[in-house]
Fold:
Amino acid sequence: MPSEVAITGLGIISALGTGCQANLTALQAGSSGIGAITLFDAQGLCGAQVRTFPPLFSKRQEHRFSRASKLLFSALHEACAQSGWSLAEYQATRSGVVLGTTLGGMPAGTAFYRQFLERGWRRAHPVLSTDYLPQAQLAMAVRSCNCQGPALIVSDACASGAVALGMAAEYIQAGLADRMLAGGYDPLCWYALAGFHCLGVYSPTTCRPFDQERDGLMLGEGAALMVLEKATLAHARQANILGWWRGYAATADAYHITRPDPSGAGACRAITQALKAAECTAAQIDYINAHGTATRHNDVMEARAIERALGPQVGRIPISSSKSMVGHTLGAAGALEAVLTLLALRAGVLPPNLGLQQPDTAAQQLNIVREPHTYQGRLALSLSFGFGGQNAVIVLERAP
Amino acid sequence: MATPCISGIGVVCALANDAKTYWQRLVAGETGLGVITRFSTHDCSCRWAGEVKYKELSELYDSRETRRMAPLSVYAMRAAQQALADAGLLAEQLGSAALLMVTTHGAAGFGRDFHDGIFSSGLQAASPICFAGGGLHAPAGHLSLALQIPASHTFIGGADTALNAVIWAAHQIQQGRWQRVLVGATEELEQVPFSAYQRLRYLASEPCCRPFGGQRRGTLLGEGAAFLLLEAQQLLGKRHAYATIEGTAAGRTTNRSQAVEQFAQIMQQALQPAAPCELIMASAAGRQADALEAQALQRVLPQVPVSAIRGALGECFATTGMLQVITLALCLQQQCIPPTVGTKNVAGDCPVHLVLQAQSWQGHQGLVSVLGWEGGAAALSLGQVDRSGCQEDQTSIS
Structure:
C-alpha cells in the first residue's frame, strides 16, 4: 500500500507576483502578467516577465545567483518557510529535491555562447558555463535545504515541472524518502523566444487559449515548488496540511518530435491513468487547469483528449488555462499551474481563461471559465502536455 | 516483488560502436583516447579526447533523419537499438515499457549553431532544426518515437544521475509500474563544453588520464551512449541476462570533512550482506577527487579489487556512469576483470587494490561506485543471475 502524500508547503514566483498571496490576489482579480519584455531585445514581442524579486538575497547571492537561481530560490524560500522545512523531525538523508526545467540557466548560457563566439574560448567566462547547466540550480537548492536524499533534474519539455512533482511523490510512496521539495523553474530568455518564434508558434498579439482566433503562445518565466511529505509524519508533527497529492500519470505520444498527436490519444491516456491512480472518477473532478498554450495544435488536441477522457462530464467541469495570465513558463509550467490550482481550490475561486472571445470549434464542449468567480471545489486536475507529446496529469485535493 | 535484471546492453563510445568490441578492447587494455579531430584545439593545452567514430554510425541511418538529430541522439539511437536486439526483443515486443534517458550537457553543438544564427542575424535566422533537436529532452523524443515507447523521461546530471536513473527504473519494475525500462545515457564531445572545462582546469595536458594514478593531472573528455534494458526477471523465459540489481543507494556528500564517511555509508547501504562484494567498478577519472573515492572504498571494502574505465574512454559524465554498470554486468557474465587503462602506479593517497592487468575472476557480486557533480554520490550492487531451473539461451555477448 503506497504511503499517502501530504502537501505542506507552496512557493511561487511568476509574472503575477512573488508569493502565494500575490498570485492568488491576481487570480481572483483576473489580472494578466503579460507585457513588454525588457530583459533583452524581443523585437516587439511580449511575454510574462517577473518584474521584481523579493528582498531575500544576500549581497553575495545578489551578485552570484543567475536569474534562474533567483527564481528558484524565491519559490524555495516560501515553500520551505511555509512547511517548516528547517524542523529537525526529518533526517537529511530522507529528504530530497526533484526539479523540472527545460532551460536551466539559459540566459547565462547565451552570455557564454556570445563570449565564446565573439571573443574566443579564452575570454568566455567559465562561471557562465556552469550557471548554464541545470545542475548549478539543483546544487543551490540542495545546499539551501541541506538535503542528502534523492536529488534529480527532470527535463520532459513543458511537462517537466509536473513530472518532477510526480516523481517526488513516487519517491515518498515507494518509501525511498519521507519529504521532498519538488517543482519547476525556467527563466525568460532570448533563446526560447527565438526558438518558438522560428517554429511559428509565438503570438504577435496576446495569449488566448482555446479561442478561435488564437495565434500562438507567449512565454513567461517563474518557479513553483511544493513540499511533499509522508502523511503519517506530517500528521505526527501536526503540520499545516494544505492539500493532498491524490495521483499522477505521465505518458508520451511517440508521434512527432515537436507536434502532439492530434487525436489526443496520449494525453487522454495520461488523464485516465491519473484518475485511476487517484482512485477517483471524472464525476468527482471539480476543476481542470488546462495546459492551454494557445497554439493551433495544442488546444485542439487537448480539447479532444479531455472530451475522450471525461466523457459526459466534460461540459460540467469548469476549465481554464493559466497561461493567459502567467504566459508559458515551460519547465515551470506544470508545477506553477499545480500550485495555482491548489491555491484556487483553497481560496474557493475559479481562475479565468483570459482573452477568450469565441471558443474554437474543437473546444465548444468545454465549460471554459471566462471571469473569475467563487466556487467550492475539492478535487482538481492539472494538465501538462509538452513539446513532442510529453504528457503529465496531476490530481490534487484541497485539505478540508 | 519483481527482481530487476539487465537483459540487454548497447554501447557507443570511443573504444567501439558495439558492446562486443567494447568489451574485447577494454579487456585487451586498449585506449579510445586520441587527438581531437572534431574541432580545432590549436591554442589549448589539452588536445585529446575519446571520440566516437561518428561517420560509421551516421551511415546506418537515413541522412535526412540524422540531419535533424544532434550527434548525441544518433549515439542514443544506436545504443538503444543494440540493447533491445541484445535482449532478444523487437521494439513491438517491449510491452509495458518506459524509456529513461540521462544527459549531462545535452546537444551543445546544436545549441552553439542556434546561438550563432541569432547573434549574427537576429530572431529571423533561428534554426528550427537546432531548436527542436537541441532541447534537453530531444534524444528521448527521437527514441520514444523510433521505438514507439509510450512513456519517456529525461534526467539531467552526471554519472551519479545515471545511477539514480537505474535505481529509479529498478524501483519502477519492483513496484510493478513497468515491466521493462530502457535506461540509457548519452553525451557528445563539443567545443563549447570542452573549452569551459579547459578554462576550469579540469583537463589533463597529456594524452592520457590516470585513474587513482600517481602524478594524475586531470581527465580527458569522451563521448558516446550506453543503454541497458532492465526487466522483471520472470519475463526472461529462455532469454539470457547479465546481472540482477541487488542493492542501491544514492545521496549527497555535504562537505569535504565528512565526504569520505558519507560516501562510505552510501556504498555500505548498497551492499547486500548475504553475499560478499568481490569487485568494484569505480568512477575515478584521474583527478584529485579520486582520493576521496579511494578512501571511502578503503573504509568499506579494503581488499576488494577495483577497476576504472575512464582511462580507456575519457570522462563522458552520465554515459560513463551507465558504462560502469554495463562493464560490471559484463565482468559478472564473462568472469573477467578489465584493467584500469592509463594507470601504471597507484597513488599514495589512493589506497585501493587497483587491477592493472586483465585477470580472470570468479565472482558473484560487485559494486558500482560513483561520485558525481556537487557531491552527488551513488552506489549499485549487481549480482550474478540465478537461473537455476531455467533453460537459458546462450545469446549473450560471448
Observations:
- Chain A touches chain B through 66 residues (CB under 8 Å).
- Chain A is about 35% helix and 20% strand.
- Residues 5 and 59 of chain A are 37 Å apart (CA to CA).
